[in-house]
């Protein structure tokens, strides 16, 4: 079985290079921002990061590439292996000048994520995982004293004792979470930023509902990181998320958890529709 060592090494280095590039635009007063057809923003930083990642992946590998910031080439549907890129996950956060954004590169094999890299440039944290090889966090990635940590989700098994992340400014989700009565909850941050916090054991679950327009590039890289840390990611019906689909949107939302809480969350949601 292929171990994807080269793919991981290349993805880590490209995510790091793109992250450093992005920091050159961070809090830039005259940052160029455009609104895409779907109403979401894209900045010059997103495009600059994509220009580092996508062409390099094509140069190194023959795999298809799916990027949020490129026109979708449907020939990818015939490919067994597909790169899935979000040059900046949390563009709205980036525009606001918060630090809750990430550069994300995932690799899909037969509709499932098998490799993921999530780099947080402001805190210099590199999360990564390969299927069946565990999930890791390299803290202070820039420094020779970087610390490598094996990631593991929390062991919280009660909704009332849990910490919940949720979609920002989403009143239906907020109402559900408040009804759940967890110890704490908060919004803010990109999809990958939140899921990696669950993989690290800092939070126990994340609810992202259908109105949030989540897509494959939002979840691909952090999905495998969460799974390898012992967690779980499904839609609101409990179905596993799949990738390299013709329609890349997650129409039935997404729920991430430490795994132990997952069935309890699904049951709670079903009872509170």
Written account of the structure:
The chain has helices spanning 5-23, 44-60, 91-96, 171-180, 191-199, 216-228, 262-271, and strands spanning 33-35, 41-43, 64-67, 81-89, 102-109, 112-120, 125-130, 135-139, 147-150, 163-166, 184-186, 205-208, 232-234, 254-257. It is α+β, with helices and mostly antiparallel strands. The protein has two domains: 5-150, Fructose-1,6-Bisphosphatase, Chain A, domain 1 (2-Layer Sandwich), CATH 3.30.540.10; 159-271, D-Maltodextrin-Binding Protein, domain 2. Strands 3-4-5-6-7-8-9 form a seven-stranded mixed sheet, sandwiched between helices. The protein has a five-stranded mixed sheet with strand order 11-10-12-14-13, sandwiched between helices. Strands 1-2 form a two-stranded antiparallel sheet. Helix 4 (171-180) links the parallel strand 10 and strand 11. The protein is globular. The termini are far apart.
SSE layout and pairing:
Blueprint: H1 5-23, E1 33-35, E2 41-43, H2 44-60, E3 64-67, E4 81-89, H3 91-96, E5 102-109, E6 112-120, E7 125-130, E8 135-139, E9 147-150, E10 163-166, H4 171-180, E11 184-186, H5 191-199, E12 205-208, H6 216-228, E13 232-234, E14 254-257, H7 262-271
Parallel strand pairs: 3-4, 10-11, 10-12
Antiparallel strand pairs: 1-2, 4-5, 5-6, 6-7, 7-8, 8-9, 12-14, 13-14
Helix pairs in contact: 1-2, 5-6
CATH architecture of the largest domain: 2-Layer Sandwich
Percentage of helical residues?
Answer: 25-40%
Please mark out the parts with pLDDT under 50 across 5 or more consecutive residues, or reply none.
none
Sketch the topology as an H/E string, one letter per element.
Answer: HEEHEEHEEEEEEHEHEHEEH
The domain tally reads: 2
Largest sheet: 7 strands, mixed
SS class: alpha+beta
CATH class of the largest domain: Alpha Beta
Note the total helix count: 7
Classified in CATH, the superfamily of the largest domain is: Fructose-1,6-Bisphosphatase, subunit A, domain 1
How large is the radius of gyration? 17 Å
Task: Going across the biggest sheet, name each strand in turn.
Answer: 3-4-5-6-7-8-9
Cα-to-Cα separation, first versus last residue? 43 Å
